[in-house]
Every structure is written in C-alpha cells, then in structure tokens.
Specification:
Helix content is about 45%, strand content about 25%. It has a 5-stranded parallel β-sheet, sandwiched between helices. Strands 4-3-6-5 form a 4-stranded mixed β-sheet, sandwiched between helices. Helix 5 packs antiparallel against helix 6. The longest helix has 16 residues. The N and C termini lie close together (about 10 Å). The structure holds adenosine-5'-diphosphate and guanosine-5'-monophosphate. The site of guanosine-5'-monophosphate has 14 residues, from strand 5, strand 6 and helix 4.
Length: about 190
C-alpha cells in the first residue's frame, strides 16, 4: 500500500523539529520517513548533508528549478531557497512509508492541495511571538539578525493557521507530543 503524507508547518522556533523528531524516534509503529528537502542555506550546528537537508549551492538550486525537479519550493528567507524534491517523496511513498514534511506554511498548503486526502496538514502554533523569541535565543543556533528575520516573518505565518487540517498548540511540550501522537494515530489507523 502507498504511504500517506504528514505535513508540519509553523513559524521558526515553534517546536516543529522537536515534535517531528520525537515522533520519528519514539513511534516506529507509524512507519515514518522524513522528507529531506534541498536548501541553498549553509548547514548550521551539527547538521549533515543528506540528513536534515541536501545542502546545495544557489546555482544548483536554480538548475533543479529549471529541470522541474521540485514538487514545491519557496524562497523562505531572502536568498534562502528550500524545496521538496519529487524523486525523494515518490520513492518513499512507493515504499509504503508515511512521509513527514517540515516545510514553511506556503509549501505546506501546496503539498496538501496536491495530495488532498492522502495528506494531513498540521500547524504547530506557539503560545506567542515573545515565546518564539525566547526559544530562538535559547536554541542559540542563529545570530541576532537571523532571529529578527525569522520573527519578522512569524506574524504573517501565523495567519496561515486556519488553512491547515489541524492546529496543534505547543505550549507544554509533553501535552503537544501526546496530541501529535493522537492525531497521527487517527489519521494512519487504516495503514497500521
Ligand atoms: P522549529 O523546528 O519550529 O524551528 P525547534 O523544535 O528547533 O523549533 O524548537 C525551538 C527551541 O524551542 C528549541 O531549543 C526547543 O528545544 C525549544 N522548545 C520546543 N518546544 C518547546 C516548549 N513546548 N517549551 C519550551 N521550549 C520548547
Ligand atoms: P530552517 O532554516 O529553520 O531549517 O528552515 C526554515 C524554514 O524552511 C522552516 O519553516 C522550514 O519548515 C522550511 N522548509 C524546509 N524545507 C522546506 C521545503 O522543502 N519547502 C518549503 N516550502 N519550506 C521548507
């Protein structure tokens, strides 16, 4: 049986990666595979090519756009492109894996529109923009300018929440994790 799609979007710092990594590591019964996107931004922290992203140059990114290799792509921040490779997703779905996407709000809406009922889109909502700032500062992976760029985008991104199938508030992390498990269980039950 072909896999299904689980789309996670949120403003940066909402806790999307934390929740996605928890689901992937602690819930093997969901048979999840992470959709590795391509990006033109440099790796940060311990990130490795082919694990979190395929890190490619802006020139290579443009070539892939021209060759129609992306299911969707966005210039999420100025000069920083991110895109989902068609080949990557189809391979995982055909192998029967349920594919997890960590994409920006526009990409999330586009993937949902393309795959319809095969996909569930989840918006991870932070308690407030102030709390986002605290989390990004505490994460300490971006410099002050990057953090301000991410926060400047957050307000607009929050306005996309109603377009998603589900809104998951990440205030208390343990509660949010449990809710995420419950959402996936309901959606994937026919496949389990
Ligand atoms: P995103 O992937 O949405 O950018 P992360 O998962 O990297 O966000 O989370 C941003 C920071 O906030 C990380 O340092 C993470 O440990 C922390 N964090 C995640 N969820 C919570 C929460 N519910 N309460 C407090 N801190 C959190
Ligand atoms: P980061 O730089 O924090 O890894 O990611 C920045 C933003 O780009 C996040 O909102 C992330 O979800 C988004 N993103 C990552 N991969 C893709 C992708 O393939 N397509 C789109 N549209 N956004 C992506």
């Amino acid at each position: 049986m072909q896999g299904r799609l689980l789309i996670f979007s949120a403003p940066s710092g909402s806790g999307k990666s934390t929740i996605v990594q928890y689901l992937m590591q602690e819930h093997p019964e969901f048979n999840l595979a992470f959709s590795i996107s391509a990006t033109s931004r440099p790796p940060r922290g311990m990130e490795q090519n082919g694990v979190e992203y395929f890190f490619i140059s802006p020139q290579e990114f443009k070539e892939k756009i021209e060759n129609d290799e992306f299911l969707e792509y966005e210039e999420v921040y100025q000069d920083r492109f991110y895109g989902t490779l068609k080949s990557q997703v189809e391979r995982q779905l055909e192998a029967g894996q349920n594919v997890v996407f960590d994409v920006d709000v526009k990409g999330g809406c586009n993937i949902k529109e393309f795959y319809g009922d095969r996909a569930m889109s989840i918006f991870i909502q932070p308690p407030s923009v102030d709390e986002l700032r605290r989390r990004l500062v505490a994460r300490a992976t971006d410099d002050a300018e990057q953090i301000e760029r991410r926060l400047a985008k957050a307000e607009e991104e929050m306005s996309y929440a109603p377009r998603f199938d589900k809104i998951l508030v990440n205030d208390d992390l343990e509660t949010a994790k449990a809710e995420a498990v419950s959402l996936l269980r309901s959606f994937l039950t026919p496949n389990l």
